[in-house]
């Protein structure tokens, strides 16, 4: 799936902005305006209350008592970024961590959590200052890092970046999460999928406002 989703030409000319524009989501300059804080139970949108999504918000933001679960209640997709730590009980969730909370290349694991793990809720959690935004600005650092730290040749490191960066770059954090949410809703129509956001400044979760829904 990795390669078929994007097509064989991606990455061959990584200086061509046009190629990457096809995979970007329109930039929204007001991204922080789209975040809905959760400071009380009433702040949790009714559709999420009394669901594992609401519980996640209660545990993390509202200090609901952490009581261990016997089986996972939901799947959480979140970025690999080290600045984020969720306050949740033992056994509460399957967690897939990937750059930008991008689950496009983790679908078998998503299906596994749903089919075998029997979870019917997915929380997608983006965060601010994500390294996957404007990934191409880090190209030189990435290549130099692989050469000096991993012992790769410059050519191999460059090819590696060229091949994978278009798959993982995102234009902005909230719009990407909304786009992933919609994609997963189409793919798994019986599951509840919630777009959430982690602010690394206050370590709180926010609900990403969906136009016309919240
Ligand atoms: Zn990130």
Can you walk me through this structure?
- This protein is α/β, with parallel strands linked by helices and 214 residues long.
- It has a domain of 137 residues: Carbonic anhydrase (Beta-carbonic Anhydrase, Chain A).
- The protein has six helices and six strands, in the order αβαββαβαααββ.
- It has a six-stranded mixed sheet, sandwiched between helices.
- β5 and β6 form a beta hairpin.
- The radius of gyration is 18 Å and the shape is globular.
- The two termini are 33 Å apart.
- The N terminus is likely disordered.
- The structure holds zinc ion.
- The site of zinc ion has 7 residues, from loops.
- The site of zinc ion (ZN) has 7 residues, from loops.
Q: What is the fold-level CATH name, i.e. the topology of the domain at 30-127 and 170-208? A: Beta-carbonic Anhydrase, Chain A
The main sheet orders its strands as 1-6-5-4-2-3
Between the first and last Cα atoms, what is the distance in angstroms?
33 Å
Shape: globular
Structural category:
alpha/beta
Strand content: 15-25%
Q: Could you report the average pLDDT, rounded to the nearest whole number?
A: 87
Q: What percentage of residues falls in helices of 4 or more residues? A: 25-40%
- Global Rg: 18 Å
> Quick one: how many beta strands?
6
Query: Mind telling me which CATH architecture of the domain at 30-127 and 170-208 this is?
Result: 3-Layer(aba) Sandwich
Give every kind of bound small molecule, once each.
zinc ion
> Which consecutive residue ranges, at least 5 long each, have pLDDT under 50?
1-29
Biggest β-sheet strands, sense, barrel: 6 strands, mixed
Number of H/I helices: 6
Secondary-structure element order, N to C? HEHEEHEHHHEE
CATH superfamily of the domain at 30-127 and 170-208: Carbonic anhydrase
CATH class of the domain at 30-127 and 170-208 reads Alpha Beta
């Amino acid at each position: 799936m990795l390669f078929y989703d994007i097509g064989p030409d991606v990455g061959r000319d990584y200086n061509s902005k046009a190629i990457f524009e096809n995979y970007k989501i329109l930039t929204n300059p007001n991204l922080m305006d789209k975040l809905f804080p959760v400071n009380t139970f009433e702040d949790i949108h009714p559709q999420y209350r009394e669901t594992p999504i609401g519980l996640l918000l209660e545990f993390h933001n509202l200090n609901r008592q952490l009581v261990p679960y016997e089986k996972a209640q939901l799947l959480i997709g979140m970025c690999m970024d080290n600045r984020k730590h969720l306050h949740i009980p033992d056994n509460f969730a399957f967690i897939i961590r990937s750059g930008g909370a991008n689950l496009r290349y983790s679908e078998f694991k998503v299906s596994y959590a749903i089919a075998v793990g029997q979870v019917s809720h997915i929380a997608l959690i983006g965060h601010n200052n994500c390294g996957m935004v404007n990934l191409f600005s880090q190209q030189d650092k990435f290549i130099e890092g692989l050469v000096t730290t991993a012992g790769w040749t410059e050519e191999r490191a460059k090819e590696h970046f060229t091949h994978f960066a278009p798959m993982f770059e995102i234009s902005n954090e909230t719009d990407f999460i909304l786009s992933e949410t919609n994609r997963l809703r189409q793919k798994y129509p019986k599951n509840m999928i919630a777009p959430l956001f982690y602010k690394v400044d206050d370590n709180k979760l926010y609900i990403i406002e969906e136009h016309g829904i919240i």
